[in-house]
Design a protein that fits this description.
Radius of gyration: 14 Å
Largest sheet: 4 strands, antiparallel
Strand order of the largest sheet: 2-1-4-3
Shape: globular
Number of strands: 4
Length: 142
């Protein structure tokens, strides 16, 4: 039998807290979503001023990163590079930059997605939140 690491309630709350703190420091009205390795929502936070759709988009970015086991930007880059077939990929509606996969000992634990500012800012915020949440050692080895 194998054992499997997962994002605990504590880690999800740390990710949301780190991302919201960073967003507030920058005056960015964003939504932040955390999902497990199957893309199922574990936490969502929509900061004051963030558009209602940002919560949906953040969740889809996170889901795409978790299911694809790669940051959502990789899909956006593929599409922009001419691989238009990815536009019809099932269950990958968040193929926009801003979803970051979270790794531990070569296993994807889930992902965090951010939406509400420029794409590269969404991605930056997600990556920094992983760093600040103490998951950085493994997450950034990918």
């Amino acid at each position: 039998m194998q054992t499997k690491a997962f994002l605990s309630e504590y880690e999800v709350s740390r990710l949301l807290a780190a991302a919201s703190e960073l967003a507030r420091e920058r005056n960015w009205a964003v939504a932040i979503a955390v999902v497990d390795d199957g893309g199922h929502p574990l936490g969502l936070l929509r900061l004051d001023g963030a558009a209602p759709i940002a919560g949906y988009i953040a969740t889809e970015k996170a889901r795409t990163a978790a299911l694809g086991r790669r940051d959502s930007k990789a899909y956006e880059d593929m599409i922009n590079g001419g691989r238009q077939a990815f536009l019809s990929a099932p269950n990958l509606q968040g193929m926009l930059e801003g979803g970051v996969a979270i790794w531990h000992e070569s296993h994807c634990l889930g992902a965090i997605g951010v939406s509400g500012v420029k794409a590269e800012q969404d991605s930056e915020l997600a990556q920094l939140a992983v760093c600040r949440s103490e998951l950085a050692r493994d997450a950034l080895q990918r």
